[in-house]
Design goal:
By secondary structure, the protein is an all-alpha fold. The protein has helices at about 5-15, 20-40, 45-70, 75-90, 95-110, 120-130, 135-145.
C-alpha cells in the first residue's frame, strides 16, 4: 500500500475514533501533498512524501522552539503532538551506532581524510541515508569522523 493511500485510510479511522489531533495532523500532511501535486502537476512518490513529512516535522520543531521562548506551553504541546503523528509515517530511523558504522564505510570509500573532504562524504551520505537519518545527525557524525 502506498503511503498516500495509508494516509487516506488513517484519516478516516481517526475521524471515526474522534481523534482530533491525529485527524488534523494527517490532514496537514495531505494538504502539503496536494499543494505540491497541484502546483507542479506531478504525482508524488513515497520518497517525496517522506521528504515532505520531514520538512513538516522540521517546521514544527522550529515552532516549538519559538513557543518555548515565548512561554506558550499550550502551543508547545499541540505542536509536539503533531510531530508525534508525523513521525509515525517516517521509516524507522537509524540508531547512532548504525549511522556511524555506515558513515565510516562512506569515509573509507571516498578516501576522506580531513574536513576538506566533507562535501564528498555528505553528498554520498545524504543519498544513502535519505529518510532514515536526519541531515543534521549525518553532519554531526561526519564532523566527528573527519576531525
Amino acid at each position: 500500500m502506498s503511503l498516500k493511500q495509508q494516509l487516506k485510510d488513517d484519516v478516516k479511522v481517526a475521524m471515526r475514533e474522534k481523534n482530533v489531533v491525529k485527524r488534523d495532523s494527517i490532514r496537514a500532511i495531505n494538504t502539503m501533498i496536494k499543494q505540491i501535486e497541484v502546483d507542479e502537476r506531478i504525482e508524488l512518490t513515497d520518497e517525496d512524501i517522506i521528504k515532505l513529512i520531514q520538512k513538516g516535522i522540521k517546521q514544527r520543531e522550529e515552532a516549538v522552539t519559538q513557543y518555548k521562548a515565548a512561554s506558550r506551553d499550550d502551543l508547545v504541546a499541540k505542536e509536539q503532538e503533531q510531530i508525534d503523528v508525523f513521525s509515525i509515517y517516517l521509516p524507522k530511523q537509524l540508531s547512532d551506532e548504525e549511522l556511524e558504522a555506515g558513515m565510516k564505510e562512506i569515509v573509507e570509500a571516498v578516501a576522506a581524510t580531513s574536513m576538506k573532504d566533507m562535501g564528498k562524504v555528505m553528498g554520498q551520505a545524504t543519498k544513502r541515508f535519505a529518510g532514515v537519518a536526519d541531515g543534521k545527525r549525518i553532519n554531526e557524525v561526519t564532523k566527528k569522523l573527519l576531525s
